[in-house]
């Protein structure tokens, strides 16, 4: 059997999911090379900071929505059959306020909080909240079953599943994407490189994608149990601030967020924003703390900042020929890397397979 030598650049959720899917084909010999690996917490490495959950935000009929739609069945199966993956089901509620429709956060969340979203036929038990049960200031709300992912468990799980299939992991930093072809563990040049470097693709030689920008997110991780997953379309504290919360599986704590600050590179938590995040969470979910308690009732584990790899026009999933080397790109997923991970990775795998097939024909 012919062997396909493949190098995957990047070990965030996109790179690891792509590696996992490609590793299921025994003809693929895969090396994942990355500056950051699961277990690292660095501002350049977005995946560990994510919630992460399934809250679809793709517009109806878009590729983005199709990627999210294709990912749900896989996340559902992992939750049901693989408890070691660190994913669990969680009841979810979304709140919409009409006054948020033109804000930065409101535009991003518009499909999630829509009265008739496309995903109502995808997720289990979708239903509208009756008008007489809506909190003050809320115009419509929906409930459904979602999942929450403990990234500290799930990312290493993806590594372990890939390693079972023979994938080799190693550290590396490259100035040009084509240089990664020389990093295959066999010592031979790779037949193909998959670029999953996220926001770093803005600066990586051979890519330097000016459409990429950070969408800064800030969270507070607490020991308190939220009981449900919740999100609103916006806040009165600023048009790029958000309210969301979710309790991670397997003791991962509860994530309180947040913000969606485009082109903000600040890696340090803003203490004033942290206070607003905690206050807003308690307003939406008083059950987080004891009766009559404010933010002093929250048991804080840590504060965190992540830079979502937002790309104008959506993620880049396409093949490119660089002087005879095929590079398949899979980056620029903004704040939906996990909930679109299998849809995007499958699209990337299809491009890899097509390129390898074309290369094999050329050899004949």
UniProtKB/TrEMBL annotation:
Gene3D superfamilies: D-Amino Acid Oxidase, subunit A, domain 2, NAD(P)-binding Rossmann-like Domain. PROSITE patterns: DAO (PS00677). It is an enzyme of class 1 (oxidoreductase). It holds the Pfam family DAO. It is found in: Peroxisome matrix. D-dopa binds at residues 244, 335. Its EC number is 1.4.3.3. Residues 6-349 form the FAD dependent oxidoreductase domain. It catalyses: a D-alpha-amino acid + O2 + H2O = a 2-oxocarboxylate + H2O2 + NH4(+). GO terms for cellular component: peroxisomal matrix. This is D-amino-acid oxidase. It comes from Monascus purpureus.
